[in-house]
Design goal:
45% of the residues lie in helices and 22% in strands. With 307 residues, the chain is α/β, with parallel strands linked by helices. Strand 8, helix 9 and strand 9 (227-232) form a beta-alpha-beta unit.
């Protein structure tokens, strides 16, 4: 590895992360033939294929995965050296790619505000958004695939830092046909209505099912259960669904605030007491001391608090 320069190390990290020459070339802003040439050079220097064919695409070799830790350490140390220069130059001169993981719910209420803030203060930043998966967030951050996560306060542990940014409360949404009778509903009748449950990752219990899980806990204390007829992975699909079907859903209030007038839905307070959801920022120890990442985290946090 002594023969490899920083550009080649960065290309190695992107190739292993993206698992595709085409995607790696797009991410680094170069042609596919140029990236293929870099891959050939890396294979020669490291005496390893790095990427091998697999069902559905390519996969890193065991040797490439082993080297990722060393490559990340080298590039992170170089980044820490350049970060000292960032403090002495105008923020508007920053040219940097930042990867952020957030659910579609967070993206819906926060992304436009965040992008406007970035364009106003640091237009050279290229923001990449990944749909959050809390079961993989720590691994993404360890590998350098994700710099920052926006999520409720329950995520996997392991060298992750957290700071709260904003809060949200629960509301029950329904269409006009159900809204007229909602105020007179008893709790047993409410449970008998057809409910929609939001579970972004159906394989595991995720923190974005916060209000659904809290509702079920409160109902269980009273010996009751909801009649769930549909489980979906996306928050953004729920308001339109509720406006057209006779179902109810318990969702974050910020989701409703960003629904257009062409989606007629009604919102009410829950029939059982539910806690507020704390939404905050997560980042890995790997980027904790980076001056640039620290500045970016503060930008995101201030943006969320201002919405």
């Amino acid at each position: 590895m002594r023969k490899l320069d920083l550009a080649q190390l960065n290309a190695f990290r992107v190739l292993v992360t993206e698992r595709s020459v085409t995607r790696a070339a797009d991410r680094l802003g170069m042609s596919q033939p140029a990236m293929s040439a870099i891959l050939r050079s890396l294979r020669s220097e490291l005496a390893d294929p790095i990427l091998i064919r697999a069902p559905g695409g390519s996969t890193p070799t065991p040797r490439a995965i082993e080297l990722m830790g060393t490559v990340n350490e080298i590039l992170d140390r170089v980044q820490s050296l350049s970060d000292s220069k960032l403090t002495r130059q105008r923020v508007s001169d920053i040219r940097q790619r930042v990867s952020l993981a957030a659910s579609d719910y967070v993206q819906q209420f926060a992304l436009a505000h965040l992008l406007n803030r970035i364009q106003a203060e640091a237009p050279g930043i290229h923001l990449q958004i990944r749909l959050a998966d809390n079961s993989r967030l720590r691994a993404w951050m360890e590998s350098g695939e994700v710099d920052l996560g926006i999520a409720p306060a329950v995520v996997p542990t392991g060298r992750l830092h957290f700071v709260p940014a904003c809060r949200d409360r629960a509301v029950v949404i329904m269409n006009e046909r159900l809204a007229g009778n909602f105020q007179r509903l008893t709790l047993p009748r409410f449970c008998s209505l057809p409910h929609v449950r939001i579970a972004p990752n159906m394989r595991t219990s995720t923190s974005h099912a916060f209000f659904d899980e809290a509702t079920d806990r409160e109902l269980k204390k009273r010996g009751l259960n909801r009649r769930v007829v549909l489980t979906v992975q996306n928050f953004s699909a729920v308001p339109q669904l509720v406006s057209q079907a006779s179902v109810v859903a318990t969702v974050p209030s910020r989701l409703v605030a960003h629904v257009g007038r062409d989606t007629p839905i009604f919102s009410r307070d829950p029939l059982v007491p539910l806690p507020e959801m704390v939404i905050g920022l997560f980042w890995h120890e790997r980027t904790h001391k980076s001056e640039f990442q620290r500045w970016f985290r503060e930008l995101v946090r201030n943006t969320l608090q201002a919405i």
